[in-house]
Amino acid sequence: MLRLLAPCLLLICIVGTLRTQAQQSSTTLIQPLLDESILIVTDKPVYFPDDTLHLAIRRADSTTTAGVTPIVAMEDLKLKASGHDTYLGVIPQTATPGRYRIFLRIVDANGQRFVYETDRVVEVEEHQAVEQLASYVSIAPLDGSSNPQTAVTLDAIQVRALHIVFRRDGIHPRMGPQFVTIRTTVQLRDGTTMRTFERRVLTFRSHGDPERDRAMFIQYRTAYGPYAAINTEELEEVRLPFDSLPGWATIRVNIEPDYTINIGTFDRSNSVTRYFRVRGPAIEIGFSIGIPKVLYDTQSRDTVDYGNTSAMLRFYYVDAESGNRFPVSFGVGTFGVNSPIDVGVARGGFAASTFLDLVELTTIRDLGFVKNFNAGLEGTLFFPIGRRGRLLINAQVGFSL
Asked: Domain boundary at 124, 143, 172, which?
């Protein structure tokens, strides 16, 4: 029995010794570094991808024999010793912006390893520059026109399908996130602004990994408050907010960098502006009030005391592509009265007229005349109260609604 007991005791001692040695050489749990005699020094306050990190360890006690090795909690960053307690490493191109904690691995005189967490960090920012919008921004399914006079005319379904497309591969490497403001303005035919929408969105060059792209997107969205309402789909495209729009309204879509986020010189030329027009009815009805001056009367011997007002319900033909009214319109109403309804014997009456609007011609040519103002020549079939009907040719100025 004693012969068996002695080998067992020897085996137990050997196992215990090996276990003790393993515990002494193993890494302990991470704990805060309380020793202020060890200082960590880096050469820059902020780093960018591809920058070289120079890190040095300074010890107040130069006689200590404990080995100290720094560790930066950054994936793919490897530090190499470049001298006594000095290290070099290159910030990976794939590093995301953030603060990366520095740890110290310390091996004491007995060979036991400890990992300490320090209060020092390596701060990484991403290269950020404003890319030329024309290289990665477009509007689909139709690009529109850069001139409001030649705006692309679309029907309601086509307008609702409009969206902004970000060709992310068109963003050059190392340009960083692109912060963009999209302003959409709806303007009526008379130049009145009906409504304006504004969206602030961001996009960036894809890293080729959907999970990494999503992580970067969440980080950007969290960092920049105004962009918290966007979603990952809007990295690729952004729908324009169109619902019910009046016929022949002009849509202006303006895209430019968000200079409240981007720091740099304001470049007015770095923008994309496109114009669209909402197709409306081919025939429009309007109301016009004018001041006529009779130039020719086929019944001049049958005297009529013409007043200085005419009021007409007019019918306009509208070009299906340009949205411009044809300069000749047809109208019915009162003529030669002192007020739109002041009709009586020998002082005005009812009329049907064809009016050539010279101002509408200038509108087509974009000469900048006042909207709704009209002036031109009119041929009028006039039926005065108590007098014979007649054909009139007159000049007229007025305004239309």
From this structure: 124
